[in-house]
């Protein structure tokens, strides 16, 4: 797996996890944007990476810890 494929897989995981958390809270992408100023739609498309500060903002918004955000994450090893 080359670096680009690895990045794509990581962004896909981030997209799926973000959407999962949003749906669990019964929130729309627009609600999230208005309340956090984070465009979760772009994240959920798997085209946008996020910064550490954005990750913390989303964790606070979803009332979870960063550890909880990464539950189920399995590192994708370089090949």
Can you give a write-up of this model?
The structure is a single chain. This protein has 79 residues and is mostly helical. It has a single domain (3-62), classed as 434 Repressor (Amino-terminal Domain) (Orthogonal Bundle), CATH 1.10.260. 63% of the residues lie in helices and 0% in strands. It is built from five helices and no strands. The chain has helices at 3-24, 29-36, 40-44, 52-62, 66-69. The protein is globular and about 35 Å long. The mean pLDDT is 90.
Task: For this entry, give a set of tags.
79 residues; mainly alpha; 434 Repressor (Amino-terminal Domain); 5 helices
Average of per-residue pLDDT values: 90
| SSE string, helices as H and strands as E | HHHHH
Helix content: 55-70%
Shape: globular
- Output the structural class: mainly alpha
Helix count from the secondary structure assignment: 5
Whole-Å distance between the termini?
5 Å
Number of domains: 1
Question: Major β-sheet, in short?
Answer: none
Architecture (CATH level 2) name:
Orthogonal Bundle
| CA-based gyration radius | 13 Å
CATH class value: Mainly Alpha
Q: Which segments are poorly predicted (pLDDT under 50) over 5 or more consecutive residues?
A: none
- The CATH topology label is 434 Repressor (Amino-terminal Domain)
Count the beta strands: 0
Sheet-strand content, in percent, reads under 5%
By oligomeric state, this entry counts as: single chain
């Amino acid at each position: 797996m080359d670096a680009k494929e690895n990045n794509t897989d990581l962004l896909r995981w981030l997209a799926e996890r973000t959407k999962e958390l949003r749906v669990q809270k019964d929130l729309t992408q627009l609600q999230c944007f208005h309340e956090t100023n984070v465009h979760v739609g772009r994240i959920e498309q798997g085209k946008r990476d996020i910064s550490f500060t954005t990750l913390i903002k989303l964790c606070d918004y979803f009332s979870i810890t960063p550890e909880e955000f990464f539950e189920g994450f399995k590192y994708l090893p370089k090949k």
